[in-house]
Write a structure and sequence with these properties.
469 residues, alpha/beta, Rossmann fold, Four Helix Bundle (Hemerythrin (Met), subunit A), four-stranded antiparallel β-sheet, 15 helices
Length: 469
């Protein structure tokens, strides 16, 4: 089955056809680095990292670009308030961003371009738009003319007249039409600036991504992605600039993730429910946060509550515990002939996982397949005799899903399994020496840690108290 993607441009699911066989060129809009990111910013980082992981699982090579806006009105304002230089503020919050998303299991991008490192490309891009008649300079500012681009509004599915009715010219702006947007901004006194044919200044917001996407991925890319809030005006303007400049489609697929609500209310500073990613990570296992984020299809809104986060933790614990119990049981498994029905079940569940991900990266349904795989694994562990081949097939199936989801089978769990085994060996030796008091102490200690022992003719088995799904 081919991967299908819901394309914001066409408002339909479309089969994915790469520009180049076996390769994916993917651009994801990154943060403006003037502060720590909130969990709304964390969602696209997790979602599109998972998209990338699934492409790689399917054998694609992915060139993944995520940019940093490291000069902007907000960064300049923050630097002035902090009494710092713009580059220092930007560098600090880039590092903070990478720390946050790294904790959430996000892989390093192929490229992380910055505006300040792409200035020559941006200036050349703007100059060419002026030469082609799509932009104009006035008083040191440069503006793009949406009315000069016939298809303006096609991404957000709005007509030029609808857009015109909501547009305004702000105080100090010299643009000809309220719809016109800035490509280059004249520097104010003592403001960070770069030389250009139009005088000292810096880029507008939208032009940077057009220039960086072209530099690192080419004139046409496979996928452009970001939060739903970026579809208009940011992505609409990017598309207009790039297609006016290059005279070809900018991106073949446009992907946008939904919003995050906090306790059923839209997150905002005014409501006091604005949650920083670093604060959530400090309170909760970041793997649980990631698992929770992927429990809802990326295109839909997600409601963030402590109760739902706890539920995600319980579910993830059960999955990991099942994997660990499989690892334990493998030590006493053997080669059995009658395993085909179980292997068939595992193959069917693997197929369910891939069908879910092929269908517009439906992680919610992929997790459902993982839950079913966990349930079947736990059922298999009730067998008196188990096959090493089946155990390993269950483990491989679970590991494949978890790797695509970006959830690690944490080393701590495996170390804990080793600790349990060591204590079981000590308990066996104590019972052999008729030291039943010590054997009982070990059983009680393990029980307090959530480990349940079962003495069988084949030896002592153990499981975690919440292993059932």
């Amino acid at each position: 089955m081919a991967i299908t993607i819901y394309n914001t441009l066409t408002q339909e699911k479309e089969p994915f056809k790469p520009l180049e066989d076996g390769n994916v060129r993917m651009y994801v809009c990154g943060p403006t680095v003037y502060n720590y990111i909130h969990i709304g910013n964390a969602r696209p980082a997790i979602v599109f990292d998972t998209v990338r992981r699934y492409f790689e699982y399917k054998g694609y090579h992915v060139d993944y670009v995520l940019n940093f806006t490291d000069v902007d009105d907000k960064i300049i304002k923050a630097a002035n308030e902090m009494g710092e230089q713009v580059p220092d503020v930007a560098n600090r919050f880039i590092d903070a961003y990478l720390d946050d998303v790294g904790a959430l299991g996000v892989k390093q991008a192929t490229y992380n371009p910055r505006v300040t490192e792409t200035m020559d490309d941006i200036i050349d891009f703007i100059a060419n738009l002026i030469d082609k008649g799509y932009a104009y300079e006035v008083g040191g500012d440069v503006y793009f003319k949406p009315r000069s681009f016939d298809d303006y509004g096609k991404l957000s599915h709005q007509s030029i007249d609808e857009l015109r009715s909501g547009a305004r010219i702000q105080v100090g702006e010299k643009k000809e039409d309220p719809l016109d947007f800035a490509l280059w901004k004249k520097a104010k006194d003592s403001e960070i600036a770069w030389d250009s044919p139009w005088g000292q200044g810096r880029p507008g917001w939208h032009i940077e991504c057009s220039a960086m996407a072209k530099k690192y991925l080419g004139e046409t890319i496979d996928i452009h992605a970001g939060g739903q809030d970026l579809a208009f005006p940011h992505h609409e303007n990017e598309m207009a600039q790039s297609e006016a400049m290059n005279e070809k489609p900018f991106a073949n697929y446009w992907m946008h993730n939904g919003y995050i609500n906090i306790d059923n209310e839209k997150m905002s500073k005014s409501l006091g429910n604005f949650v920083l990613t670093k604060d959530i990570i400090a309170q909760h296992d970041p793997q649980v946060i990631r698992f929770f984020m992927l429990s809802v299809h990326y295109h839909n809104p997600i409601n963030f509550t402590e109760e739902l986060l706890q539920s995600a933790k319980n579910s993830l614990d059960r999955i990991k515990n099942a994997y660990t119990n499989l690892e334990h049981r493998k030590q006493t498994s053997m080669n059995l002939d009658q395993s085909e029905q179980w292997l068939k079940t595992i193959r069917e569940l693997n197929d369910q996982f891939e069908e879910a991900m092929d269908d517009d990266f439906n992680t919610a349904n992929a997790i459902s397949a993982l839950f079913e795989m966990t349930k079947e694994a736990n059922r298999y562990l009730e067998e008196k005799q188990t096959s090493t081949e089946v155990i390993e097939a269950f483990q491989q199936g679970m590991a494949n899903v978890l790797d695509v989801l970006g959830i690690q089978l944490e080393q701590e769990d495996m170390l804990l399994a080793d600790d349990v085994e060591a204590l079981l060996d000590e308990r066996t030796e104590a019972r052999r020496n008729h030291d039943f008091s010590r054997a009982d102490d070990i059983r009680d200690h393990l029980k307090a840690k959530g480990i349940i022992l079962e003495d069988t003719p084949q030896g002592t088995r153990w499981k975690r108290a919440d292993h059932d799904t």
